[in-house]
Amino acid sequence: MLITTPLATPMAVVNLNWGGGVTGPKKVVVASDLPVDCLLGNDLETSAWAEVELEAHAAMLGIPGHIFALTRAQAKKQKGQGDLDPGRMDQVLPKSRGSKGKSLPTIPPSTVDSTSEEEEFPPCAETTPEELEADTAELLGEGGPAREELSVAQQTCPTLEGLRQQAVKQENGDVSDFHRVYWEDNLLYTEARDPKPGAARRLVIPQEYRKFLLTLAHDIPLARHLGQMKTWDRLVPLFHWPRMSEETKEFCKSCETCQDSGKTGGTPKAPLFPLPVVGVPFERVGVDIVGPLDPPTASGNRFILVVVDHATRYPEAIPLRTTTAPAVAKALLGIFSRVGLPKEVVSERGSNFMSAYLKAMWKECGVTYKFTTPYHPQTNGLVERFNKTLKGMIMGLPEKLRRRWDILLPCLLFAYREVPQKGVGFSPSELLFGHPVRGPLTLVKEGWEQPLKAPKQDIVDYVLGLRSRMAEYMKKASKNLQASQELQKQWHDQKAVLVQYQPGQKVWVLEPVAPRALQDKWSGPHTIVEKKGEVTYLVDLGTARSPLRVLHVNRLKPYYDRADLTLLMATDEG
Question: Which residues form a coiled coil (predicted)?
Answer without folding.
Answer: none
